Amino acid sequence: MPLDFMRRRTVPLLLVIYDCDGVLVDSEPVANRIVAEELTALGWPLTAAESDQHFLGLTFTDMQPIIERYLGHPLTADWKQALVQKMINAMATDATAIPGAIEALHATTALGLPWRIASNSSHEEMHVKFGRLGIRDLVAGRVHSHRDVARGKPAPDLFLAAAAAQGVAPAHCLVIEDSVPGAAAAAAAGMPCLGYAAHHDGARLRAVGAVPFGSMHDLSTLLAAATGAR
What we know:
Blueprint: H1 2-7, E1 15-18, H2 28-42, H3 48-55, H4 60-71, H5 79-94, H6 101-110, E2 115-119, H7 123-133, H8 136-139, E3 143-145, H9 157-166, E4 173-177, H10 180-189, E5 193-196, H11 203-207, E6 211-213, H12 219-227
Parallel strand pairs: 1-2, 1-4, 2-3, 4-5, 5-6
Helix pairs in contact: 2-3, 2-5, 5-7
């Protein structure tokens, strides 16, 4: 199905927009562990898996009212920044690449396709993640954070900003996402979306308009199908 989807494109593909966490960087196990530990200490007992279910794809700003509703009281003024710093410290040592992700970036370039990264993470977080993976030079000048726009995902602002930076209309973009908020943001931006679903059937991604695929190693073939490359 993903291959047929790419072959059926009726407009030229001019820009690929990658999410960061869960698509390029396998940071979500680290993030889920940190968030679960933090919220358990605050009085909301959570496992890493439960943290993933509640918060996958959300910014810390979007998480805060959810947490406050559960706890029944406001979080401290420095809560978010303290959590961001814990996350940065952990990512600097523990983040790893999604299998096939870095190869997919190189394959995108080899096909002559511009690409950008649009993430609900901060630039500070992405800086240490990409440093850990050794790809800071590769991604330089291509990275967009939710802090650059008025609203993060699931709003379309971040993807629209990435497209505007490249001078490409939304219909000519392709988003690579792994979360429901991210896929919903792509749909709201009017951009087709491939949903990376390595560990589940992709039903939740499909429900918000994404076409699931199972391995980043397959992405070069999928992009080649869209460009007519052989």
